[in-house]
Amino acid sequence: MTTPIALRFAETDLDAIATATGRVAVFVGPNAKLGPSARRVNRLTKGAVARYVESEAFEKAKEGTAHVLSWPAGMAADAVDVVKLSRRPSQADARKAGAALAKVLGKGGALIAADGHKAAADIAFGVAMRAYAFDTYKTGDKTAPGEVTMMATNPEALAAEAGPMAAVAEGVFFTRDLVSEPANILTTDDFAARLAAMQELGLEVEILEEADLEKLGMRTLLAVGQGSESPSKVVVMQWNGGGDEAPFALVGKGVVFDTGGISIKPAGGMEDMTMDMGGAGVVSGVMRTLALRKAKANVVGLVGLVENMPDGKAQRPGDVVTSMKGDTVEVINTDAEGRLVLADVLWYAQERFKPTGMIDLATLTGAIIIGLGHEMAGVFSNDDDLCNAFLKAAAAEGEGAWRMPLSPAYDELIKSQIADIKNTGGRGAGSITAAQFLQRFVKEDCPWIHLDIAGVASVKSETALAPKGATGWGVMALDRLIRDRYEG
Ligand code: BES
Ligand code: ZN
Ligand code: MN
């Protein structure tokens, strides 16, 4: 796994600015008024900061962006980063500012002079989020960044504010690590073991093995994994921080690798399907965050861990399987496996936990990438209230999410000739027919959201808070939803 950067908080020491090595960062609001640290840098550099903030370049600079003064005279540092940031920035801008600093962070580390900035904790969070790198399999020179010290007027208060944020960052990193791991390492066994290890944090973790799933009748899930050497599993993680009320349920698709099975995918890009456990990764990351920050809510996370491989024992197109619910499914395309996995886990979650609401996450369809690209996840829901609360949380955290329709009109497309339902519709509305399929396994009185994260779980170019690769999309939004809706 990846070690997060070392970030510590210290009391402002203006004299440390001259002697700090690595980088020094200061913040200046759009009014160009210099705070104590910026003033000190300005004095040491004989007016370089003032010249910059009086320039057109500063006027044109966007909030949350940094300007670099390289090899400044009068200072030991290699560079000064002058960040344009209001005294009361939006959370997104403050995090962006931190991310901008993390992006240029080198081995020499950095001294971030936040003075009394209101958004110092958000800046620190942005630094941590963007400084993440998955370098487990890089031998040779790993470019681990040096220590980051954030100087503030009240470092104790800042550390207290940053604490819960660190829990969120750790959850996000857990998700990113899981999504980044290759399938020869992150097998279903390995995944389950990593989740079982979270018992140390106070989570109750149970692993249902194939024999258990067989007994429960989870035939649609088992059918997906039957061509793999890795045993299928369902892992149940319970966080009980909210007394004896019924829990909220999070359900994730954990396909550790998806070749398509007998309906095999083309070779080009198949390697990307190591991220097909992204939904389960987000559920796991959120559960980790809840445990780390000791959330005052009851949440249960369930993940269906399987591998979809072609094999003599693999399921075939045309097979008919019976779900735990009892509905029969004609498997038209073995590559539409995610919905088969989720059908059983969704049903099990409701039967066992009677949750007050349920959100599933899955890298479910390529079609959602056609519709929304890599900017937004597809949101499907049977409950406006829950859905709006989620959309609000996602917007507040800067995680793109867009509501898509559900309608019985689409059910026509997944009617089967010989079974109750088939697992694919036609070419049109591929993400919606997948969601309609899932809805069949959601009880009418259960408020539910399906998040299709195929486009956002892992991306080929960097985002505001993540380098290219696994993003951890959804951990922040779901943690906030739980905080705002179910705690206090
Ligand atoms: N895991 C894929 C969906 C996916 C595609 C995730 C691209 C991430 C990036 C899913 O199992 C799948 O193969 N879906 C098929 C469904 C089709 C056969 C109806 C698809 O989208 O092509
Ligand atoms: Zn898949
Ligand atoms: Mn597939």
Overview in brief:
The protein is of the alpha/beta class and 488 residues long. It has two domains: 7-153, 3-Layer(aba) Sandwich (Leucine Aminopeptidase, subunit E, domain 1), CATH 3.40.220; 169-485, Aminopeptidase (3-Layer(aba) Sandwich). The chain has helices at 16-19, 36-44, 48-53, 56-60, 91-104, 120-131, 155-180, 188-196, 210-216, 219-225, 278-292, 338-353, 367-372, 384-396, 430-439, 475-486, and strands at residues 7-11, 23-28, 66-70, 79-84, 110-115, 148-152, 204-208, 233-240, 248-258, 298-308, 320-322, 328-330, 357-362, 377-381, 401-403, 421-422, 448-452, 458-459, 469-470.
Relative helix content: 25-40%
Bound small molecules, by name, code or SMILES, are: ligand BES, zinc ion, manganese (II) ion
Shape annotation: elongated
Q: Number of folding domains?
A: 2
Keywords summarizing the entry:
488 residues; alpha/beta; Leucine Aminopeptidase, subunit E, domain 1; Aminopeptidase; 2 domains; eight-stranded mixed β-sheet; six-stranded mixed β-sheet; 19 strands; binds ligand BES; binds zinc ion; binds manganese (II) ion
Question: Can you walk me through this structure?
Answer:
With 488 residues, this protein is α/β, with parallel strands linked by helices. β11 and β12 form a beta hairpin. The protein has helices at 16-19, 36-44, 48-53, 56-60, 91-104, 120-131, 155-180, 188-196, 210-216, 219-225, 278-292, 338-353, 367-372, 384-396, 430-439, 475-486; strands spanning 7-11, 23-28, 66-70, 79-84, 110-115, 148-152, 204-208, 233-240, 248-258, 298-308, 320-322, 328-330, 357-362, 377-381, 401-403, 421-422, 448-452, 458-459, 469-470. The chain has an 8-stranded mixed β-sheet with strand order 7-8-10-9-13-17-14-15, sandwiched between helices. The protein folds into 2 domains: 7-153, 3-Layer(aba) Sandwich (Leucine Aminopeptidase, subunit E, domain 1); 169-485, 3-Layer(aba) Sandwich (Aminopeptidase). Helices cover 35% and strands 20% of the residues. Residues 255, 258, 276, 337-338 line the site of zinc ion.
